[in-house]
Amino acid sequence: MSGVDEELDEAQRSVRRAGRSLFRVRAAIGLVTVVALLSIATGIINIGGTETSGLLSAYVPQSVEQAFGFTGALTGFILLATTAGLRRGVRVAWGIAVVLLPVTAFQGLVGSTGVAVAGRTIPVATPLVALSVLSLLGLLINFRTFDREFDLGTTQLAALAAIVGAQVYGTAGAFALQDGFTGVDSLTDAFYFALVTASTVGYGDVTPETETAKLFAMSALVIGTASFAVALGTLLTPAIEARLAEALGTMNESRLELLDDHVIVVGFSDMTEPIIEELGRVDFIVITRDEEKARRLRNRDIDVVVADPSDEDPLRQAGIERARALVAATDDDAQDALAILTARELNPDLNIVAAATERQNEKKLKRAGANTVVSPAVIGGHLLAQSALGGAGVENFAARIARADEKEIAAADEELAEEVDVEGLEAEEETADAESDDE
Question: Which domains does the chain have, with CATH numbers?
């Protein structure tokens, strides 16, 4: 009983460590959100031209102070947009936030607005500075959590390049032909002309006077507006499709309620793809927090719930009380363990199968609540080794396993047993279990 108690204690400690890690990440993202909102508010206040009392105001030129004041709102909006990527664990969003947080802190020091309270001027941006520093520390501490890549397609990259190219063309041309324009005296004026022309705002304060300038302005108008229209459509379409798919998924709750005796697949990765293909003969549903992967799965008519697989709500939505089994086979053993712990708590009788990416995590996944833990790397290595040592039937065995039913698998197993040490895998598992009991 002492060995079992030790395993239970270790599992509980693992749960507490995972919970603390998840809490730290969510707290850091929450702080970034608060900083973004404070930066927006501070920037808007500074636009009003009220008294500024930044700690560094005496050491910074007035023009720089004013610039940092009104750009605070822009910085805040960009930072607020990055929080969506932070919640998904995107590394690029983490990098943008790490760059912008020192900027928001400096904006608070330079352009903070003073408010008179009881005869004293209190800088309202002091919380902005303090929270910016805390948020930056939180993101740096949880660096390893934000490991998801942000992949843009070729079309989206081309769209971004078109926008940048159009702005460079408009800015360079207007600056080179500044003698033919009224109101273009600097590079900033030229960029201003390119931006208001491409966005079709056209305030009318910058106008071409010569024939050459007019021809260039027409070309800049056509190129700029076309690039903006095409790029915005290309970049926004995936996000709109994801939101529509999520909304349709919410509207189709009745279909989820009809699921019974089905299999729940938590997460989606390269390791999960063959599992989904094999499960095509039974009812199953996938839970993933990656909207892009969920969109691709929906295009294949696969039921998907877009949420964190380790949360209770999506598991309940997927009908875990009525499920026959749960499969956890992503590339992240820690996330699989959290999902298994939650699933075991919601359904103690559920058959849970997990794939261990790292061999040393097999026992941990079992302690988390998995009934069966398979290590694809160990199995693949064992078969490769047996094949190298002369096991002629290994390749045929693997091929038949990939396409066979249960009876054919059993027949292939018996046929291979004479040539390959298939029992070696079972012996390794028994040894590992014995060592675990001794501990």
Answer: 2-145 (no CATH), 154-248 (1.10.287.70), 259-373 (3.40.50.720), 375-439 (no CATH)
